[in-house]
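lol so apparently i was supposed to do this last week
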Amino acid sequence: MSNIISGKEVAAEVREGLKAEVEALVKDTGVRPGLAVVLVGDDPASQVYVRNKKKACEKAGINSIEHRLPAETTEEELLTLIGELNADTSVHGILVQLPLPDGLSEDRVLETIDPSKDVDGFHPYNMGRLVTGKPVFEPCTPLGIMRLLHSTGIDLKGKEAVIVGRSNIVGKPMAFMLLREHATVTICHSRTRDLKEKVRGADVVVAAVGIAEMVKGDWIKEGAVVIDVGINRIEDGSLVGDVEFATASERASYITPVPGGVGPMTIAMLLSNTVRSAKLSASGEKAVAS
Ligand code: NDP
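anyway here it is w/ NDP bound
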């Protein structure tokens, strides 16, 4: 039976630490970190995410500035708002909740955010820095996964890591973070041949697919570390991951549960990036050379 990696507990520790850092920053410099969250339209899941982010900010002492725009907002209007937030010195992080309604270009919107306030780490500048091994702001979900892996004390050097999923927000940045720690990385996707065999060879498996329990327990190598990013709602209304937890946990040395695994870490890392941005700004240091 494997050890459960509790993202809930690790995230709570991170958030406690951030709260203390925020208090110290305010006391020493008068600067309180500010995160602007932009929500366009009325996607119900996005509304929940935004509400949770706001709550988490408040608990950590971070100012959360919410901008709710109607679904009919034009790209120009949205870009104008981002321009204003870029110029606002009380804002240290800008997050545009995705997905955007049809007709708005996510690429253009994300590229308009000042990279030094891009606490989601999705701007091509920050992606490029990650790829070249000199990261500034890194995407929150894979960054949170690295924290979870570190919490196990496992040395990733030379380990075979298999990532299932190649999205820009999880799979690809995850690969570069693992590579930086000297793992040998394989990225799998929907056209990968014999996925089962790839997973069977892995010391570390990261599943980020979005299909309930598609990674079967008997694919997991004895003693492997399993990180399940997936959040899938099944017919009975409960949430399950991308990995068949019951059987995988019989073989894995460590495994993350769903819920309570990767999910809580994503928000914790968003707060962490925002606090770092505020600290850099307070010290007059530039996160991004202009
Ligand atoms: P995407 O839909 O952007 O990417 C899914 C990836 O899975 C794609 O690369 C796709 O391949 C691959 N894939 C699909 N079907 C298969 C298959 N049969 N075999 C192998 N690979 C396959 O998803 P995201 O990365 O955004 O999210 C993945 C999951 O993680 C979702 O459940 C999402 O809800 C969850 N998530 C959780 C977060 C958290 O905080 N816990 C944060 C972000 C996401 P291809 O590229 O070829 O299409």
